[in-house]
Design brief:
Radius of gyration: 15 Å
Order of helices and strands: EHEEEHEH
Largest sheet: 5 strands, antiparallel
Structural class: alpha+beta
Strand content: 25-35%
Number of strands: 5
Distance between the termini: 23 Å
Shape: elongated
Length: about 120
């Protein structure tokens, strides 16, 4: 099993920065990229919905997924938020080390000049 994962979460645009900041501050994720507006068409309670959302791409470690999922559910505005994790099967080792250094349970700080 891969040690590092990317977690996808959709949310209304106005909630995304607060959710992202909370998860980074709590070191459940090392980084959250928030994409511009996406259009989501889906079934909800027997009706087809057509909503404007943003996609949050979160980088973290596999062992933090359960805690991350619980926290997202606690702060997300949706009754059933999208929370999907995919393994990072390969990546730049310095970047993967940076994820380790900036998530819970591993001491470390961001390298100067690092961008995610």
């Amino acid at each position: 099993m891969a040690n590092h994962i990317v977690v996808f979460v959709t949310t209304p645009a106005q909630q995304a920065p607060g959710i992202a900041r909370t998860l980074v501050e709590e070191r459940l994720v090392a980084c959250v990229n928030i994409t511009p507006e996406i259009r989501s068409i889906y079934w909800w309670q027997g009706e087809i919905e057509d909503d404007s959302e943003v996609l949050c791409m979160m980088k973290t470690r596999q062992e933090l997924f359960a805690a991350l999922q619980r926290r997202i559910k606690a702060i997300h505005p949706y009754e059933v938020p999208e929370i999907i994790a995919l393994p990072i099967v390969a990546g730049s080792q310095p970047y993967l080390d940076w994820i380790d250094q900036n998530t819970a349970g591993i001491r470390g700080r961001q390298q100067p000049g690092h961008t995610s």
